[in-house]
């Protein structure tokens, strides 16, 4: 019987095989033999899955620092917009838009990175954009007007998003499929905690100095993270046929990392990204992520305005501290996601199907719905700030756990397209974060907090139901079709 749990892509995925075919038939035969011999593969010391635990741990910690900064550094200025508006003599609303283009370009930056990651390897496309991002943050720190500051921040988003994309392929390279959900949980939580932790730290620093000092500290943090990538980062791509250890210095520059023909590999992956954007399961789950991520980012970008206004009248320290509710929610979301992924797998271990991962979204979406209503109604009626914190925690529990479930499904379904899948999901997530900053403030002003967040809760439930349910139906139909074809072949 054919196992239908993992779809084989219609395009020939393996650029490794593609490259080898272009070199010579003898090398092709050697690569196939190496790839098919699982006993040799498990003993191969060059395979990242066989690296020492300490080496893998330090590389993964370096990845987490970069991932934490990806979103955390992009919204670092969320608590500084009022001070910047006064410094540049512009409105607060106009000052707040300095982050929007950077958030949008995070999605496109991830898509652009995919062909480069596959052609030149993980390490150089992780390291050099990080160096560029550090320089962009430094440029923003030294900017004297809103336009220059926004230009640097936009470029920061374009280059700084790479860790959010490169994480899945690195996890895919270093760990077994049984370890993927746990490692995705840990890694994913870092860049989902970032949007709340970053502005809190920025606000604390600014309260004792000014916004330039805060961004200067961010530049230094980027420097430390970059040094960690240099010291502990290794190329994790392992293609068939490699018999010698890769040069450490050469790997930083993408020399010899993949042993693939660069031109054909770049063209292949450009086409593949376009094809996979419109794959039905990725399209549906991507839309679900867009909606799931939009509303929490809306809270992140607007909450300061309400906390500084009556009846709360928070100062900078108090408003920054409130963002730890978002951090707590994200960490709790990690715990919920970890529990449900393990529980779902144990319950269906004997009859496992990839789409069962998506059952991990239902309870988190319920948490997010209750959180949106609690948050909106607490502010609408001017109740105690504890209600705001509880609502935000529940929203973030739902957001993180949902994204973990969908990411686990996508990676397990398309394991050989880990880079592509990660970039596509990241694009949907950042598009939602970009869009909300333009319509939510005016929407709240026009209709009020209670109605707005009530509508958001309804939209969330409908959107997830109308996107996730069709994926189950599509998977069931495809599985039945595969079984019928297999039975027909058996009869012949």
Automatic annotation (TrEMBL):
PROSITE patterns: MFS
Gene Ontology cellular-component annotations: plasma membrane
Molecular function GO labels: transmembrane transporter activity
Disordered: annotated span: 21-48
InterPro entries registered for this protein in UniProt: MFS (IPR011701), MFS_dom (IPR020846), MFS_trans_sf (IPR036259)
SUPFAM superfamilies, per database record: MFS general substrate transporter
Compartment(s) where it occurs, according to its Swiss-Prot or TrEMBL record: Membrane
UniProt keyword terms in alphabetical order: Membrane, Transmembrane, Transmembrane helix
Superkingdom to which the source organism belongs: Eukaryota
Membrane topology per record: Multi-pass membrane protein
TM regions (residue ranges): 58-78, 98-117, 124-142, 154-172, 184-207, 213-234, 273-299, 319-340, 361-378, 384-406, 418-439, 451-474
Every Major facilitator superfamily (MFS) profile domain range: 57-478
A Pfam family of this chain: MFS_1
Protein name: Major facilitator superfamily domain general substrate transporter
The organism's taxonomic lineage, starting at the top: Eukaryota, Fungi, Dikarya, Ascomycota, Pezizomycotina
């Amino acid at each position: 019987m054919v196992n239908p749990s993992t779809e084989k892509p219609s395009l020939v995925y393996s650029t490794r095989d593609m490259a080898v075919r272009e070199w010579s038939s003898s090398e092709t035969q050697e690569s196939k033999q190496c790839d098919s011999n699982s006993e040799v593969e498990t003993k191969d010391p060059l395979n990242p899955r066989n690296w020492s635990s300490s080496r893998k741990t330090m590389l993964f910690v370096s990845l987490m620092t970069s991932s934490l900064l990806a979103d955390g550094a992009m919204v670092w200025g969320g608590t500084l917009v009022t001070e910047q508006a006064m410094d540049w003599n512009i409105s607060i609303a106009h000052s707040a838009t300095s982050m929007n283009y950077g958030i949008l370009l995070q999605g496109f930056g991830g898509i652009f990175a995919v062909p480069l990651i596959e052609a030149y390897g993980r390490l150089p496309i992780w390291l050099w954009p990080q160096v560029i991002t550090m320089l962009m943050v430094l440029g923003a720190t030294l900017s004297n007007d809103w336009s220059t500051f926004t230009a640097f921040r936009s470029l920061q988003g374009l280059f700084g998003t790479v860790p959010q994309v490169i994480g899945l392929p690195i996890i895919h390279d270093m760990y077994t499929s049984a370890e993927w959900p746990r490692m995705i949980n840990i890694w994913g939580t870092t860049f989902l905690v970032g949007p709340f932790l970053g502005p809190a730290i920025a606000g604390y620093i600014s309260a004792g100095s000014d916004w330039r000092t805060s961004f200067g500290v961010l530049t230094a943090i980027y420097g430390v993270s970059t040094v960690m990538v240099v010291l502990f980062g290794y190329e994790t791509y392992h293609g068939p046929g490699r018999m010698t250890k890769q040069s450490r210095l050469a790997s930083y520059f993408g020399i010899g990392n993949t042993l693939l023909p660069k031109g054909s590999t770049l063209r292949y992956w450009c086409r593949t990204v376009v094809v996979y954007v419109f794959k039905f399961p990725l399209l549906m789950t991507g839309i679900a992520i867009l909606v799931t991520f939009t509303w929490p980012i809306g809270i992140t970008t607007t909450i300061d305005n309400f906390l500084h206004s009556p009846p709360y009248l928070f100062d900078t320290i108090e408003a920054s501290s409130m963002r730890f509710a978002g951090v707590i929610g994200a960490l709790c979301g990690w715990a919920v996601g970890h529990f449900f992924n393990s529980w779902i797998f144990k319950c269906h271990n004997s009859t496992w199907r990839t789409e069962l991962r998506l059952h991990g979204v239902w309870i988190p979406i319920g948490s997010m719905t209750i959180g949106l209503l609690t948050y909106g109604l607490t502010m609408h009626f001017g109740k105690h700030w504890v209600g705001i914190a509880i609502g935000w925690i529940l929203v973030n529990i739902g957001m993180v756990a949902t994204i973990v479930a969908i990411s686990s499904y996508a990676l397990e379904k398309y394991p050989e397209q880990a880079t592509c899948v990660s970039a596509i999901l990241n694009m949907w997530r950042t598009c939602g974060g970009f869009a909300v900053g333009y319509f939510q403030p005016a929407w709240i002003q026009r209709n009020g907090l209670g109605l707005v967040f009530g509508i958001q809760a309804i939209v969330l439930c409908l959107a997830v139901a109308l996107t996730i349910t069709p994926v189950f139906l599509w998977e069931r139909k495809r599985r039945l079709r595969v079984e019928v074809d297999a039975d027909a072949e058996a009869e012949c």
